[in-house]
Amino acid sequence: MKKLVLSVACALLVLTATPMIGRATAPPTSMQHQSEPRTKTFSGTIMKSGDNYMLNDTANKTSYMLDDAEKVSQYEGKKVKVTGTVDTASNTIHVETIQEVA
Q1: Strand 52-57 vs strand 62-66: parallel, antiparallel, or unpaired?
Q2: 81 found inside a domain
Q3: Rounded-to-integer distance, Cα 12 and Cα 1, Å
Q4: Entry pTM
């Protein structure tokens, strides 16, 4: 009986002393902020391209597709400021807010 108790105690000691392999852990806070999309503000003119709306940023010579046609359709041909996050893979702005600028 002593051998059994001693064996179990040793096994528990080994398991608690070594890290668990394959255990999921959260990345450090500094790494979490790097992967989260950041909200940015873009300026330009809203143009329609087929069924999609684009923000033509002439200052940066860049065009972005806008993901919310319902929000941006009323601004077609107007200069606007768009706030949102960019999906760099598709060059699409996920529109949070939009407002016309003078």
Answers
A1: antiparallel
A2: yes
A3: 17
A4: 0.63
Q: Which helix (H) or strand (E) holds 94?
A: strand 92-100
Q: What is the mean pLDDT of residues 4-24?
A: 56
CATH number at residue 44: 2.40.50.140
75 and 101 in contact (C-beta within 8 Å)? no
Cβ(80)–Cβ(47) under 8 Å?
no
Residues in the chain, total: 102
DSSP of 25-72: -PPPHHHHHHHSPPPEEEEEEEEEETTEEEEEETTTTEEEEES-HHHH
The model's pLDDT over 45-93, given as tens digits with 9 standing for 90+, comes to 999 999 999 999 988 899 999 999 999 999 999 999 999 999 999 999 9
Q: Kindly state whether residue 31 falls inside one of the protein's structural domains.
A: no
Residues 54 and 65: beta-carbon distance below 8 Å: yes
